[in-house]
Design a protein that fits this description.
The protein is mostly beta strands. The chain is built from one helix and nine strands. Helix content is 7%, strand content 42%. The model has no long low-confidence stretch (mean pLDDT 92).
Amino acid sequence: MKIERKYMAHYLNAHFANDSEGTAEYVRLGKDLEEYSPELSANVEKKQNILGNTSVTIDSYQKQGEVSPYYAEKGDPLFEKLQAIIDGNMVLDDLKTDIVEVKLWNEEASGAFPAVREECYIEVSSYGGDTTGYQIPFNIHYTGVKTTGTFNPSTKAFTEA
C-alpha cells in the first residue's frame, strides 16, 4: 500500500536557539507547498583499482530542504521569526532551531507518532514576491544532530525516546 505524502509531516520550531524564554513552538510546513523534499547530497568517493574493480564510499550527507513559496501570515510564529531574521540581518546561532519529521502513518500510544528531531539552520533566500502575497522563501540546512522519539500533532510536543 502506498503512503500518501501528507503522512510524512515536517514541523519546524519557530522558537530559535537565541530566544531566551519560552518553549518549542512547532509549525507544520506545507500549507502553500506543493512539494518539500529534503535533498541528501551525499559525499561520494569512487576509486578504481588496477584490477578494474570500483569501490564506493559514502561518508556523509549535507541535507537541506527548500521551502518555497512561504506566504507570510499575521500571527504565525514562523513568519514573525523569519521577518526578524530579515530585519536584524541575523547570522550564526541566531539562525539555529530544529525540525521534526513525523511519520503519521504509524500511530503509537495516546496520539503520538514516531519522529526524528534534527538541529538545523534557517537561511532566508529572499522576500517580497508577486501579487499573490508577501513571500519569504527559505532553506533549511540540517546539521545531522538527530534525536529519535515521538511527536504528538495535537499538542505539538516532541518526546525524546
